[in-house]
Design goal:
binds zinc ion, 49% helix, single chain, alpha/beta, 16 helices
Length: 323
């Protein structure tokens, strides 16, 4: 298929986005606009200067930029506008359902009230159904480089808001640096979240080994695995993922940009799909990794030579895997 034909074919498939960090949708021009509005100093002279810094050399270079970007988020309006801008782009890409991750610790750690974060993000999401035809929910995610005590404290801070946001806040997730922060570190807080009736997801098997995927399922009770591309290293785990149809929310351009794969042509997404795993395509942190969901589908389809049937399957998987 020609590129334009491929893009419009994929755009026309009803899709769910299940692995998207809302703070990772802050575009450079938005960072500058919010910084100016909130009088937050930035270590970059211009939008161009900031964009040039998107050539990451390693994970830390990304995280430095990511936290500098998130610091401009101060008010409910900022969180609302960031979320709405994402939802508009998702709608244009043919997304009909979005389950959005957010990291409250990135904001409460800077003194932003939990309520401000919820009100802005949920406010935009509630407008998405009537305004853009996108349904969705929120995944409150714990930062795994922080302690389990910190995660418990964050949960306690958020629980008083549960009733007010019951229509959108359905799930709990686990993200940030995987190495050195195994699933078992969060076993107790995830057990508590399960008792509270939340749906559970966790990042595993991106940089970490296949055993983290197994532990995310067994110790955390994760119902979906975010990334999970290293599951292939364990044949018994692969068989289990296939039999139980555990969805993997794979993010090809993120894997490329953070050097999980050296070239998109080497990505194992097609092999996972051909082994009957419930693979989905998502954008992770699209403002930083060079593309929203349609770009991820198109780049992957071209690099791996995915057939029309496989693209239909990927989109259908995403719809089947939504909560
Ligand atoms: Zn992620």
């Amino acid at each position: 298929m020609e590129l334009q034909e491929l893009r419009s074919f994929i755009r026309g498939l009803p899709k769910a986005e299940l692995h998207l960090h809302i703070e990772g949708t802050l575009e450079a021009d938005m960072i500058f606009a919010f910084a100016q509005r909130n009088q937050v100093p930035l270590p970059y002279a211009s939008i161009e200067d900031l964009k040039n810094a998107y050539q990451f050399t390693d994970l830390q270079s990304f995280l430095d930029l990511y936290y500098a970007g998130a610091a401009v988020l101060q008010t409910e309006q900022d969180f609302y506008e960031m979320t709405w801008a994402y939802l508009e782009k998702a709608a244009a890409d043919g997304v009909v359902h979005a389950e959005i991750m957010f990291d409250p610790q990135t904001h409460t750690g800077r003194g932003i009230p939990m309520e401000t974060v919820f009100a802005g993000i949920a406010g935009a999401l509630r407008q998405a159904k009537p305004g853009l035809g996108i349904s969705g929910s929120l995944i409150l995610s714990f930062l795994r480089h922080l302690s389990e005590e910190n995660a418990f404290a964050t949960l306690e801070q958020a629980l008083p808001l549960r009733e007010a946001y019951r229509d959108v806040w359905l799930s709990i997730g686990l993200d940030s640096s995987e190495k050195g922060n195994p699933p078992e570190k969060f076993e107790r807080v995830f057990r508590r979240c399960k008792e509270l009736g939340f749906r559970l997801v966790a990042h595993a098997g991106e940089e970490g080994p296949a055993s983290y995927v197994r532990d995310a399922l067994d110790l955390l009770g994760a119902e979906r695995i975010d990334h999970g591309v290293r599951s292939e290293e364990d044949p018994a785990l692969m068989q289990r993922l296939q039999q139980e149809q555990v969805p993997l929310t794979v993010c090809p351009l993120s894997n490329l940009k953070l050097c999980v794969v050296g070239d998109l042509k080497e990505h194992n997404l097609k092999r996972l799909l051909e082994q009957g795993i419930c693979v989905t395509i998502n954008s992770d942190e699209p403002a930083y990794f060079g593309g929203y969901i349609l770009d991820n589908y198109v780049a992957t389809a071209q690099a791996l030579g995915l057939s029309k049937e496989q693209l239909v399957q990927l989109a259908a998987n995403s719809m089947a895997a939504r909560f």
